[in-house]
Amino acid sequence: MNPQDRIIFPLDLPTEKEALDYAALLSGNVGLFKIGLELFLECGPSIVEKVRRAGAADIFLDLKLHDIPVTVERAVSRVADLGVRFLTVHCGESEAMLKAAVAGSEGKVGILGVTVLTSVGGDDIRKAGFLPQYAEDLKQLVIKRAVMANTCGCAGVVCSGHEASVIREAAGEGFFTVTPGIRPAWDGMKCDDQKRVMTPAEAIAGGSDYLVIGRPIRDAKDPVAAAAQVAEEIREGLAARA
Ligand code: C5P
After folding, report:
1. What is the b/e burial string over 136-173, where b = at least 16 CB atoms within 10 angstroms of the residue's CB?
2. Does pTM top 0.85 for this prediction?
3. Atom of ligand 1 nearest to the CA of 182
4. 3-state secondary structure the chain
5. How many whole angstroms from 159 Cα to the centroid of ligand 1?
6. Which residue, 8, 37, 176, 199, has most beta carbons within 10 Å?
7. CA 59 to chain CA centroid, nearest Å
């Protein structure tokens, strides 16, 4: 895998035209385009094929499914024929739901478990009725869910860069960690609304396989040059791993 193949660029854009313009512009510089709920609901499933036609990169459908197992299985089987590389499913509910998602994928799409949303804090977890040990140390809950996702046959999980190395140790090679909240060193570590950020080099050196990186590339004067610089930082992170 080339360093740039580890970049996931979210098409967080309000219109089909803007999304397709960015897909065409960046297709040679990132590994995957992430289509989230906003764009998917605005344009419908046909957006997947349109993004694919705009460039050569793979597609990650970030729908964060969560329902009874049979409903999730049937929904995933609809996605399986869209030809995307990854699809997200919440992994907070049950093993049965994750296994159903994997069954519905028919091996055609990798299921990524969403462990704990970064918008959730210890207090939310306590109020939601979880054991105090998880409210005090959310990382333990993230790891528990990642191990569950691995056991159920998921391709990987979405997690922060702070958890990637422990998950890698617990789940082993070949189980992907996908990390958002990335801010390149040259971007001045601007946080926007992300709380615990890392540079691309730090996240990759720590064991993340793929990085979701949006605004630092999207809002750069030259998005192609920004993506190339991120790839360079990923190269440094990989060298630090060895
Ligand atoms: O790099 P930037 O902050 O712009 O990336 C935002 C993208 O990352 C959004 O598509 C968002 O859904 C995704 N994301 C996130 N935090 C998570 C999971 C995904 O920001 N914990």
Report:
1. eebbebbbebbbbbbebebbbbbbbbbbbebbbeebee
2. yes
3. 1
4. CCHHHHEEEECCCCCHHHHHHHHHHHCCCCCEEEEEHHHHHHHCCHHHHHHHHHCCCEEEEEEEECCCHHHHHHHHHHHHCCCCCEEEEECCCCHHHHHHHHHHHCCCCEEEEECCCCCCCHHHHHHCCCCHHHHHCHHHHHHHHHHHHHHCCCCEEECCCCCHHHHHHHHCCCCEEEECCECCHHHCCCCCCCCCCECHHHHHHCCCCEEECCHHHHCCCCHHHHHHHHHHHHHHHHHHHC
5. 11
6. 8
7. 11
CA of 218, closest atom in ligand 1: 4
Q: Domain 3-236 belongs to what topology?
A: TIM Barrel (3.20.20)
Take atom 2 of ligand 1 and give the residue whose Cα is closest.
214
**Bridging pattern class, strands 7-10 and 32-36:** parallel
In tens, the pLDDT along 187-235 reads 766 666 666 689 999 999 999 999 999 999 999 999 999 999 999 999 9
